[in-house]
Amino acid sequence: MRRLTALPLLLLLAACGARSHLADGLDAGIERPLDAAADAARPDAGERDASADAGPIRPRCARDADCAEGVCRGSIGDPPRDLASIGLFCGAPEPDPSGAPGAPCRERASCDRHLCAIAGACVVPCASDADCDAAELCREVWVTTSPSAMERLTACTARVAAPESVRVAGPEPGPLLDVPAASDVLSDLRPGALVIWRGPTQSEPLIERVLSRTAAMEVLFDAFAPREADAPAPAWGIGAATVREVVTLLHPNGPRSPPPRLGFEVLLSATTPGPSERIVLQRMAPGDALDLDVYLAGGNGWTSRDGAPPPPLTEAVEALREVLAPAGLAIGEVRVHDVVGGLRRRFEMLTGSEGLLGAPPDLPVLYRLSAGARRPAVHVFLVRFIEGALGIASGIPGPHALPGTGASGVAIAADLVESPAHLGLVMAHEIGHFAGLFHTSEADGSVFDPLTDTPECRAENDLDGDGVLVPDECGPFGATNVMFWAGGGRAFSRQQAALLRGAYDVR
Ligand SMILES: [Zn+2]
Questions:
Q1: What local confidence, expressed as pLDDT, does residue 41 receive?
Q2: Rounded to the nearest whole angstrom, what is the distance from the C-alpha of residue 214 to the centroid of ligand 1?
Q3: C-alpha 413 to ligand 1 mean position (Å)
Q4: Alpha helix (H) residue ranges in 106-241
Q5: How many CA atoms lie within 13 A of 245 on its CB side?
Q6: pLDDT at res. 98
Q7: Which of 43, 131, 381, 407 is the most exposed place for a label (fewest CB within 10 A)?
Q8: CA pair distance 137, 459, nearest whole angstrom
Q9: Is-contact 151 85, C-beta < 8 A?
Q10: What separation in Å is there between the alpha carbon of 316 and the centre of ligand 1?
Q11: Is cis: bond before 311, omega within 30 of 0?
């Protein structure tokens, strides 16, 4: 099998030791379904929520169409059963001012159906996409039912949560993802457009090649091309894969990106065959603020304080704010979401490695907790430990403004981070990747980002000859940049700052 060479040593490490991110082939891993343990769930020992909805026999349902009267809704009175399917029944919705479907929420009582997804929006149950409107997908979401229980259902969730200043084209049908690769033609990309292909949930779409549509059909990118030892900086930085389900292409992402001329032909494959859809994001007006949805999934043992961030997280966000401010980017709202019970125990230690990027198999499952979100934000998941990494961004760039996919966020091993200030720097680094920034220099000094104003630390700086360029060897050559492979820096270049501000979750 051909070996992938153009998944650059890209997204995973912020500062902790070497780890190969190059998978030897295209063999996708097997993902443990999220509901593996669900139906064996037992009643949760935690506190019951408020008072019971006493009353007569309640017709069960999975969606509104199952109800002769009323709507399909949840109940606050049922005993919590961690990891189980939540009980749904037909009944009248709670009266105003309870949240209507899609309204922001922090707890079940805020929603007219008593269904508040952990991503922070009131949801409506569904059995398939046909039960939802065209802008929604019927996906699994989790509702917190006690301080130690979360229960699941399938609900209508927004496909896209983009700022008003962003134009969303699609979804349109994309190519059938399979092996060998199928082609998609991008003929009229506007500057700065982000193209996102979404495949089946378990798929790992891969950009194998990108060709110019000129008569020469020049190969602009080839994920299998041999990489020379001292290859020049890539002209067009392309992250050929993400953790799961989607793949992205941002053009241009630096002054060296090839001009579109007649457009591009993109060859896409996936080892889990299935249809794809294509969404193109284009910015109509500049943005300058980034909201954060932070999921407390065990990291540092943190929990929210009545919905507010724990104090050390506030400190970390302040550090992040200081790093992003010179780039012209403000941190807006910071919303925290407690992951509790069995899900917290499952996600707090992310071990193992599989797939094209060698990511822990539970990582895409964790990212999908963002399903249901309706506001643009970067979703940040704080766990205790990630095998071989301090932080992982799902892709370069990630699927901006698409919550609920297997690549919708960044994860950080909070217990491995030295201090809140350090956590702020790690967040900046991973958010940088998610926005579309590559490492300024990789550890071996042979791969650099596609920008022209970031310093490069080349192999000749490897003074001790150990093959790894550490910050001490790269002081004037990029070690102070946030996106240096080992992290730790505080600076963004002008071109990096422009890419950060252009991310499509920036409002
Ligand atoms: Zn990195």
A1: 36
A2: 34
A3: 13
A4: none
A5: 21
A6: 81
A7: 43
A8: 48
A9: yes
A10: 18
A11: no
What pLDDT is attached to residue 507?
Answer: 97
Ligand 1 centre to CA of 390 (Å) is 9
The closest of 119, 154, 149 to 136, measured between CA atoms, is 154
Whether pTM exceeds 0.85: yes
Q: Tell me, in angstroms, the distance from the centre of ligand 1 to residue 441's CA.
A: 10
Q: What is the pLDDT of residue 376?
A: 97
Q: Point out the residues of the chain with pLDDT beneath 70.
A: 1-56, 227-234
Distance between Cα 487 and ligand 1 center (Å) = 7
Residue 9 Cα to ligand 1 midpoint, Å, equals: 9
Nearby residues of 26 by Cβ (< 8 Å), 6 or more positions away: 1, 4, 179, 204, 206, 269, 271, 356
Whole-number Å distance, alpha carbon 431 to ligand 1 midpoint, is 9
Residue 398 Cα to ligand 1 middle (Å): 13
Q: For residue 337, give the DSSP letter.
A: E
Please write the tens of the pLDDT for every residue from 175-211. Answer: 999 999 999 999 989 999 999 999 999 999 999 999 9
Helix or strand or coil: residue 345? helix
What is the Å distance from ligand 1's center to 434 Cα?
A: 10
Question: What are the C-alpha distances in Å from 143 to residues 120, 364, 412?
Answer: 10, 18, 23
Count Cβ atoms below 10 Å from residue 190 Cβ, excluding itself.
Answer: 13
